[in-house]
Amino acid sequence: MNCEITPEKRPPSSGGGTEGGCIESFLRQWAERCPDKPAVICDGETVTYGQLWEQATRLSQQYRQEAPRAQVIRSTQSIGFLLTYFACHLAGKAIVPLENDCSESKFTGIQDEINACRIPDHVADILYTTGTTGRQKGIMISHRAITADAGNLVSAMQYTEDLLFVISGPLNHIGSLSKVWPAVMVGATLCITPGMKDMNAFLGALRLPYPRVATFLVPSGIRMLLKFARKELAELADRIDFIETGAAPMPQADMEEMCRILPDTRLYNTYASTETGIICTHNYNAGYCVAGCLGKPMKHSAVFITPEGYVACKGETLMEGYVGDEALTASVLHDGTVVTSDMGKIDGQGRLHLTGRSGDIINIGGYKVNPVEVEDAALAFPDVADCICTASPHPALGTALKLVLVPRNGSAVDRKALAAHLMQKLERYKVPLLYCLADHIERTYNGKPDRKFYQP
Question: Coil, strand or helix: which one is 215?
C-alpha cells in the first residue's frame, strides 16, 4: 500500500538536509507516520516501515550488549542484512559489511584490524575497497556523510515516497548501499534482488505495480541488459523513471543505445567513490550525451581540479579516513579536501569530465594513452562485444598497446577493419598494434575492467 504524505506529515529534512541526524531518525519518523507503508521487498516478502523499525530496534538491544565498537558481518541481498545494518547504528556501533563469500582468513584479518583500532564515535560504516589498485583499505564514513549523500541523491534525482528503487548490487559497497539512504530519507520502497545473474528477478522487480520505478546499475550490468534483454527493457520504457550508473566509465555507444531505448527515462552518470561520497551527476538523456561527462556537483558537495590535473572534492560527504592508517589518510585527505587519482577537467558549464586515472595511463613512446578512450572507440565497432586495452612488452618498441577482444555473438572480428575504424576515431599512437581474442573480460564486482589481472 502507499501512504499519502501531506506537508504537515512529511518528516523533517526529507528534502535532503543533513540536520536530521542519522539515517535511522528518518526510519523512525516514517515508521511513526506510515507504519503500514512497504519499506523493503525481497524474495516475495514485504516488510513495512513499522515492522522494520520495530525489528531493528529489538535487534539493537542484542548488539548493545556486545563489546566491539565496530561489528564485522557478511552482507547478503536480504531484509535480514538491512535489519542488522540499522540495528548496529541504533546500538551506537559502526558496521563493517564484507562480501558474503569472503574467506574466513580475510574475515578474521579484517576483524583483527578493526578491533586493534579506535573507531571514532561518529563513524557509522567502514567499507572496504576491492583492492584492485593495491591492498584493501577500510574507509570510515560518518553518520553526517550518510545523510549528506542521501540529501544529494534526493535533491538531484528527485526521490519521492511513491518510488520503488530496485537494488541488484552488493550492499557492502557504496554503489548500492548508498541507495538505501535516500529511499529511507523520503519513505520510498526498496526492492532487493539477487543481482544481474538472475535477470528475470531483476526485470520482474521493475514490473512491480508502483507509479515510479528506478534502479542503479554498473556499466557492465547495463551492457548485459542491452545484450540479453533489450526487448524487455524497451517494453518497460514507460515505467522506468530513472536509471543511475557509476563505478566505471560508460561507453558512448551504450549511452546512445540507452537513450534510444528509453527516450523519456532520466539516465544519470554519477561521480562517486567510497572516499568522496556522492559528488556529481549528469542526465545524459537530456540533450548532452557525452562519455566521461559526470555533471555538476550536488547540493552538499564541491569539486575542483588541482594544478596537476587531479579531481579534488570538498563537502559533507567525504570520508573520515582509512582505518589504522593516518599516513595514507593524510596523503589524500587534508584541509577538508579529498584529492583523488582521477584526472579531469571542468567545462564552461561547470560540468566535471573525467579524462583518465593516473594509475591506468599507458606510456607509449612518450605519449600518454588513456585506455578507456581506446576501449570506448573499439566498443563502437559492431563485432566487438567487450574489450580491454592494456600495455604489452614489445621487442622493438619496448611497450605497445594490446586490445583484448570479446567477439559479439561469436562472430569473427576483421582486425584490419577494426584498426581502420580506430584510425578514424583516434590519433595514430592510440591505435593498438596487438590484438587477441577472449571469451570474456575480467572485471571487478562493480564492472570495472580488472587491469591488474592483465598486467604483464
Answer: strand
How many residues are recorded in the chain? 456
pLDDT at 57 over 60: yes
Chain mean pLDDT for the chain: 89
Residue 249 DSSP class:
P
C-alpha 109/C-alpha 19 separation (Å) is: 36
CA distance 220 to 448: 8
Q: Which fold has domain 360-454?
A: GMP Synthetase; Chain A, domain 3 (3.30.300)
DSSP SS3 for 174: helix
Assign residue 335 a region (left: φ > 0; alpha: ψ between -120 and 50; beta: otherwise).
Answer: left
pLDDT digits (tens, 9 = 90+) for 341-384: 898 999 999 999 998 776 777 878 667 788 888 988 899 898 99
HSE of 212, CA atoms in CB hemisphere, 13 A? 19
Cα 127 to chain center, whole Å?
13
What tens digit of pLDDT does each residue of 251-302 get? 888 999 999 999 999 999 999 999 999 999 999 999 999 999 999 999 999 9
Cα dist from 300 to 16, 82, 303, 304, whole Å = 9, 25, 11, 14
Name the residue with higher pLDDT: 6 or 61.
61
CATH number of 23-354: 3.40.50.12780
Q: Which residues of 313-331 are buried (b: 16+ CB within 10 A; e: fewer)?
A: bbbbbbbbbbbeeeeebee
pLDDT in tens, 17-44: 333 479 999 999 999 999 999 999 999 9
Quick one: cell of 121? 564515535
C-alpha cell at 51: 515492522
Domain ranges of the chain: 23-354, 360-454
For 271-338, the three-class secondary structure string (H helix, E strand, C coil) is: EEECCCEEEEEEECCCCCCCCCEEEEECCCEEEEECCCCEEEEEECCCCCEECCCHHHHHHHEECCEE
Q: Distance (Å, rounded) from C-alpha 162 to C-alpha 345?
A: 37
DSSP assignments along 15-69, one per residue: TT-STT-SHHHHHHHHHHH-TTSEEEEETTEEEEHHHHHHHHHHHHHHHHTS--S
